[in-house]
Amino acid sequence: MSTATIPDPSGTTEATARTRAALTGADGARRRKDRTMTVLIWSAFVVAMAPLVSLIWTVLSNGAARISMDFLSLSMRNIFGGDPSGGIYHAIVGTLIITALATVISVPVGLLAAIYLVEYGKGVLARAVTFFVDVMTGIPSIVAGLFAVSLFTLFLGPGVRMGVIGAVALSVLMIPVVVRSCEEMLKLVPNELREASYALGVPKWLTIVKVVLRTSVAGLTTGILLAVARVIGETAPLLVTVGVTDSINFDPFEGRMMTLPVFAYRQYSQGQATCPGGESATCVADIAIQNAWGAALVLIVLVLALNLIGRLVNRWFSPKLR
Amino acid sequence: MERDVKLSRFTRAGSAVAVGALALTLAACGSDPAAPGAESTGGPAEGSDSALSGELSGGGASSQESAQEAWRAGFQTANPDVTVNYDPVGSGGGRTGFTDGSYAFAGSDAALDEEEMTAAEAQCGEGGVIEFPGYVSPIAVAFNLPGVESLNLKPEVIANIFSGKITTWNDEAIAADNPDAELPDSAITVVHRSDDSGTTENFQAYLHEAAPDAWEHEPEGVWPIEGQESAQGTSGVVSAAQSGEGTITYADASQISGLGTVAVGVGDEFVPYSAEAAAEVVAQSPRAEGTADGVYSIELKRDVAGTYPVVLVSYLLACGTYADQAQADLVKGYMSYLVSEEGQKAAADAAGSAPLSADIRDAVLPSIEAITAG
Questions:
Q1: Do residues A62 and A128 share a domain?
Q2: Are residues A60 and A91 in the same domain?
Q3: Which of A61, A112, A114, B117 has the most neighbouring CB atoms within 10 Å?
Q4: Which of A280-289, B32-41, B44-53, B316-325 comes out lowest in average pLDDT?
Q5: CA B326 → CA A155, A166, A232, B160, distances in Å?
Q6: Chain B residue nearest residue A96, CA to CA
Q7: What pLDDT, in 10s, does the model give residues B351-371?
Q8: What is the pLDDT of residue B278?
Q9: CATH number at residue A179
């Protein structure tokens, strides 16, 4: 405290000292409470951060060594055993295409459902929609995958694997998250803005498009990105719907695709490779494990990049108030 | 309300850079790796095979995974427009997928039983089912005893060790067949697979047949005895055995580096494991009778002198006819490559498997050559 060093009339110093004494000295119990709570809150923060930091550190330290231009730009086609020359390009492509397709399916559905719930919905139907969205949030991911498989098996016969089936499975998981988060964001828009718009004679639909959505665009993007982050790491539904492959496939409507989580899982379960002539530049015994760590790292970076892009989109589109 | 022009311009530029960078990384230079050496050409000799294209998907036993990877690499190198996929979902999943038509071909650690065969025949149509033991791998009985590299053990002794009746290394039953080995009086630690595995099932099938009195458990994928040390997967049991002294385990023979191995008693002699001796047991075993032409399932004879009887026999399943001409050509090409000497050598190098005998190859090739669309 700087009060002690400032020279000023004696009465004020005395009064200040008394006040300080009253504040700091008198009630020891309150101070102890204050200290305890501070320590508690800080340690809760540290406990919450510890897994995150540990996770990022583990993935970084294990995966960083594997990252190289070849690893990012080659597929695993014709690579087997301990051969370290393969890469995850096919999995990156698959993850991006399938997630983008799932987003294209679920964002219109989810956003429109949220608008209905906030702006139009009343009575039994709105309550039913809310209830079923809540139920959908709790669906285990493998059930979503099996739903998509059985849906497409009805039309295309058994054994069909393609990217779009995975996208449908992911959107089953994604739609409820989009609906819930968008609903909350739309509710946050002050009613005065809507009323002002109506007072100027703007129709309801235009009010929603120009005022409500425009005001909440930052929250909506964040919600959608959270939903994307929720599904981009899914393994089980993609394993049953999209299958596995070693080759690059750009077409989500034809043939199997690889995705990063499935790739990491598959590589991890392969375990050690056998190197008949001992370890060398062309045969690394634990290459599959290294590949799995590398893929995990790329997946984390991908989610991070998506979040950054979301932030930029936010700043770009949301209205600025001076 | 007014847009913050400065910030907006800055972020606009930032976004453009970020999006551009992302697009670049996506579009740039992604490709399949170059062919890894030209030594494997794959496919039967005639050059017409390179005309093949399309996607072929199968699945099944995970024991075949390494071999399937080698086969796929060889076949895809010879036919650059072809993509072959193999889902290592386990034998049961492979058989189910094959009989309901999800998989064009499948791998299975056991031959189809009658019910499955009926279902598979219904799925395959008039061409019938093709089934043959395409992947044979010796299972080694491996132990970790300092100074001892090889032991001679009779089937009954192996069964008694693994069931826990023989508990120390200097037991008379072990010492009797190994007069030269210096056996410590330490305890024997049995390490088994904790997961459901074809290796466990085939190892138990051997014990059950070769020493029926000492091993009463019905062969199945899960280890029947509780209270022993266990580990996940082949690499798991091997590293568990390597890290403890006085351990004994069973594992795929290609993966047991650093451990001593058991020469298994067959009749009056002891045979150490080798891919050749394992191939021999399959070659010597008679073909099961009363099956269709394309089905070559074997009844393992585990008592032929000079052969190594502890083997994992894994079958490949395909149809004689496919609805689609392209699919039929792909399966035909892939299966012919897989049984060819070259294909079997690729699997032997990658997975340590025992190459298929010429007799079996000659017996199954005609059915494979006859695969058509119908």
A1: no
A2: no
A3: A114
A4: B32-41
A5: 22, 26, 34, 53
A6: B26
A7: 878 888 888 888 888 889 889
A8: 86
A9: 1.10.3720.10
Q: What's the pLDDT tens digit per position in B162-172? A: 999 999 999 98
Helix (H) / strand (E) containing B129 = strand B129-144
Q: Are B223 and B193 in contact (CB under 8 A)?
A: yes
Nearest residue in A to B68, CA atom = A80
Option in B28, B76, B87 nearest A77 (CB)? B76
Domain that holds residue A194: 68-317
Model ipTM? Answer: 0.71
Asked if B6 is an interface residue toward chain A (Cβ–Cβ < 8 A), one would say no
Residues B212-221 have a mean pLDDT of 87
pLDDT at residue B3 in the model: 43
Give the residue from B85, B137, B194, B330 with the most A CB atoms within 10 Å of its CB, the best one to mutate.
Answer: B85
| pLDDT over 60 (residue B17) | no
Last residue of a domain, one of A20, A45, A66: A66
- Provide the 10 A C-beta neighbour count for residue B243: 10
Closest chain A CA to residue B21:
A305
- B235 and B118 in contact (C-beta within 8 Å)? no
As to burial, measured by CB atoms within 10 angstroms (0-12 exposed, 13-18 middle, 19+ buried), residue B242 is: middle
Identity of the residue in B31, B73, B100 whose CB atom sits nearest the CB atom of A158: B100
Of A44 and A240, the one with more pLDDT: A44
B87–A contact, CB cutoff 8 A:
yes
On whether any CB of chain A is under 8 Å from the CB of B37, the answer is: no
Per DSSP, B39 falls in state S
DSSP A198-242: HHTT--HHHHIIIIIHHHTHHHHHHHHHHHHHHHHT--HHHHHHT
Show which of A40, A66, A92 is a domain's final residue: A66
Check CB contact under 8 Å for A312 and B83. no
- Of all residues in chain B, the one with the smallest CA distance to A278 is B257
